[in-house]
Amino acid sequence: MMNALYNQVKKRNPDYSRAYIASGQLALSKHDYGLAAEEFEKALKLDTTDADIHFGLAAAFASSDGEKSQQHLNTALERNPNHIDTLLFIADHHIDSEDYGLAREALDQALEVNIVEPRAWAYLAVLAHLDNDEAGEEHCRQMALSWWGNNPEVPHLIGKKLADKYRFAEGASYQREALEFDADYLPAKVQLSQDLLRLGEEEEGWKLANEVYDKDGYNVVAHNLVTLQDSITKFTTLQRGGFHLRMESREAKIYGELVLDLLVRAKETLSAKYDMQIEAPVVVEMFPKQEDFAIRTFGLPGGSGFLGVCFGRVITANSPASQTASPSNWQATLWHEFCHVVTLQKTHNKMPRWLSEGISVYEERQENPTWGQSMTPQYREMILEDGLTPVSQLSGAFLSPPSPIHLQFAYYESSLVVEYLVEKYGIDVVKRILVDLGVGMPINGALQRYAGSLSALDTGFAAYARKLAEDLAPDADWAQPELPDDASPEQLAEAQQANPDNFWLLQQYATGLLRQQKWKEAQPLVERLLELYPQYTAGYSMLSVIHRGLDDTDSELAVLNKLAEISADDVDAFERLIELNAASSDWESVTAFGDRLLAINPLRPAPHRHLVKAAEQLGDNDRAIGSLRALVEMDPIDPADMHYRLGAALHRKGELPAAKAEIVKSLEEAPRFRAAHRQLLEIVAKLKENEVTAPSETETPAESLRR
Prior knowledge:
By secondary structure, the chain is mainly alpha-helical.
C-alpha cells in the first residue's frame, strides 16, 4: 500500500506532510518502529507544528529512546493540549506503571474532547477490570461500543492491555470477541497468537501466527514468530517432574539434565513454602540466540537486559550460549523465574510487578547467599540520597528507568520491601497478601490490611533501607574525593594519605599500583579496604592478584575461597581455585568449583575436563559419565580418547551395552587404539558371561538356580 499509494502522493507533492504521516502510521501498525521514525522525521521537516507528527515520533521512539519519546509527547501537547492520541498514549503509560489515578485523569481529559471516544472507554474498562469491578468493566465496554456495536478495536484494546498486565486468559477472551466482530481483524489475531503461546496453548498459537503472516507478510511480529517457529521445532524436549524443557539439541545433551535437576528442586522448595500445587506442565524454553529469546518473549527483537521472563506456565530464558563478556548464573536466573511461576499462579497473575520481582529476588538470596542482589556502594548512595521509590509507585520504576543501574536498583529495592515485610510481619503475611491479590483485592488494600497505612509502610521501609545502607562499611569515609579524572599517582597518594579510610581513594590508589605491579605497596591498601568493607568482591579479586604476584599460593587460595563465598559468577576466581586445588589433589574442591563453573556456562569444555579428572580420582563414575557425555558433544580434539574414557566409565558402572557402543565409536575414530581393543574384549566377554548366566524369559528363578 505504501509504495502503491503514499509514495505516489509524495512524488507528486513532496511537501505534503500528511503523506509522510500516513506512511509513519502504517509502519507503526506493523510494529516497524525504525521506518515509522524515518517517515515522521521527514514530516517534521515539513511541518513542526502538527501534533500528529510529534505524537507519531513519541510512539516510534517509545521502546528505544524514552527521553526522546517524552520530549515529543510534551511537544504534541504544547501544539494541541486536547490531542486525543497523545492523551490516550499517556493513559496507556500510566496503566503500565500502575499509576491508575493519573491514567484516569488523562482519560477524563480525552472524554471531555469526545465523550464517545471508544478507546478512552476501553481503557476505562481495563481499569475497572484491574479494580475487580465487573459491572463497571461491562458498563465501560458498552459505552465503548455505543456508536459501533461490532468495533473490533474495542475488545482488542481491552484484551491487549490485560495481556500487558499478564492477564493472558482474560486478554485472549477479549481477542476472540474481537475476531467474532471481524474474523479478519489481524491485530486481534496476532495478539491472540501471542496470548496463547504465553499460556502454553501452542498449537493454536502458532496456527494463528501463520494465518496472520499469510495474509500480511509485512506484519513484523507475525513474521518474527513464524521464523522462530522453524527454529523451535528443531529443539529437543526433555520432560521430568511436571516440566517440559525445550533446548537446542546439542545443549540439551550437554546440560539439559542439570537444568531439570534445578527446576525440580525449585519446585519442591518454593511450592511447599508458598503452599502451592503448581499447574503442570510448566514449559521452559532456553534460547542460544538472544534475538530468538526476545521474539518468543516480546514478539520483537530487543530486551537485551532480560535474562529470563515468566508468563505463569511458560518460562523463556537466554541460554549460556548467548552470554556476553559479563556472564550470569543461569541457575539463579531459573530459580528466579520459577518463583514467578509460583507467585503468578497463586495470584492468578493478579499482582503488581514490583511484588513479583521482589519475591523472586528475595528467594534467590534465600536459596543461595551468592545469588540475587546485595547492597553496593552505588545502592548505598542512591538510598541515602533519597533515591528510594515509594512502595505504591515501585512498579513504575521498572517502566522507564533513567539508566540500567536504576532498573537494577528497582529489582533490589523491591526485594528489600519483601525482606522488610517478612522480617517485620512474617512470611505468612506475605502469603496472605498473595491470596488476597488472587481474589481481586488491590495491592494497596492488601498491604494496608496487614501492614497499616501506606504512609506508615513507606516510612518504616525507608528507615529499614537507610539502616542497611548505613551499615555498609560504616567506618569507611564515603565522601567523593575532589580530584581530577586524570589525577597523577602522586596526587592520589597524597590524597589517600590525608584521608586514609576513604573508600574511593583506597580503591583508585590500589588499582593504580596494581597496574604497575607494585604488589607490596598495594597490599596494605587492599587489606584496609577489606577491613572496612568485608563484602567487597572486587577487593578480594585485587588481593588474590597481589598474593599471586608475590608467589604466596596459600594466601591466594585463602582469599579466593572467601571470594567464592560471596560471588556467584566470578569465572576467573573459580578457574584459579580449580587449578590450585588440582595441584594439591583436593579433588572434592575441584568438583565443587567445577560445578560452580557449570552454573555459569556448561558449554565450555574446561570445567567438564576438570570434573572428569576429579571424578576419576574419586571413583565417582556417575559424575565422570555426565561430563564425558558433555565433552563428546563439544567436538573434542581427540574424539577417540573421549569415547574410550566414556566407555571405560560406563564399563566400571556396569552399563555394558552403552560401554560397548562408546568403545566401538572410539575404534571407528582410531582403529589401532590398543587400549580400546582390550576394553572391548573385556566388555564382550562380560556380555557373553551375562548371557550364559541370565535366566531365559520362560525360566523360573528356581530353575535358573538348579541350572
